[in-house]
Amino acid sequence: MEDGVLKEGFLVKRGHIVHNWKVRWFILQQNTLLYYKLEGGQKVTPPKGRILLDGCTITCPCLEYENRPLLIKLKTRTSTEYFLEACSREERDAWAFEITGAIHAGQPGKVQQLHILKNSFKLPPHISLHRIVDKMHDSSSGIRPSPNMQQGSTYKKTFVGSSLVDWLISNTFSANRLEAVTLASMLMEENFLKPVGSRSLGAIRSGDLVEQFLDDSTALYTFAESYKKKSSPKEEIDLSSVELSGTVVKQGYLAKQGHKRKNWKVRRFVLRKDPAFLHYYDPSKEESRPVGGFSLRGSLVSALEDNGVPTGVKGNVQGNLFKVITKDDTHYYIQASSKAERVEWIEAIKKLT
């Protein structure tokens, strides 16, 4: 990190006038959050805009957009609102933590509080589990179950563990993720919720209450009264469903060179195993389907030289590049945001080829 830079990386930002979503490169400093346009895999200077953090309030998780569950909302002293989307819950929470620290930089007590997790949690006397479940069922502001696939089977009316944790915090039933996980475990103990699928059922075997409910985007749960499992007949499973049924190993924003026009665009990449696939999504769209992807079986992955523009790369794009060659000899040129990130992606992909 450069001097004065607390964190940097890709986030998807909602526009102010036209509410479209665009990827920007963000740099967090002690009292300012800068954001840049990207052209040809490089940030365009000067910055496209800046968010002054003095007097800012932060909302995380922010659930104002149903199809964008990984949002951070910033409201400045002048009441300007910024919506920023991360590529994963872990990345969203890391950004929220650093931004909150920057907002309270002049208040050491506040910063210290950020590092303290409450290890004991008791349900406030004025809140009952029944009231929480009633609110979870609310048609406008509650949890919205949907079909989810896991290991080739489709589970109707389910939701993922991390989305329930977000919802409990957003509705002020819990102050932090640890409290929310404990509360979700209580709901499960009292048979309001049921685990669905191998990931969440496996956690039940743990004797620790906090570990029984998983704050995880691959662990499925359902309301106890609506538990239904539908095994998908083999003839109904299309190739894309099989591709997307694997366990998520890694995800993040990376720049990718297009095959036809050779232009560079930031995509959200998701690496899955069993089966091994690398899919990429357009982060400016709300669709949950990938815009492309390929099998990693028999693929080759390698880093490209950092000095000069490598062969096959169009434009003055250099630094932190790597290449994946698929079994059918299709070449994918990808750019990470740092050398360390490039190493992480290459190592993760190599394990699955």
UniProtKB/TrEMBL annotation:
Annotated Pfam families: DEP, PH
Keyword annotations of the record: Acetylation, Cell membrane, Cell projection, Cytoplasm, Cytoskeleton, Membrane, Phosphoprotein, Repeat
Keyword Phosphoprotein part of the UniProt annotation: yes
Localisation per UniProt entry: Cell projection, Lamellipodium membrane; Cytoplasm, Cytoskeleton
KW Cell membrane (keyword) present: yes
Record membrane topology: Peripheral membrane protein
GO biological process, one term: actin cytoskeleton organization
A GO CC term attached to the entry: lamellipodium membrane
Stretches assigned to the DEP domain: 139-225
Segments forming domain PH: 4-104, 247-353
The protein's name in its UniProt record: Pleckstrin-2
Organism: Erinaceus europaeus (Western European hedgehog)
GN (gene name): PLEK2
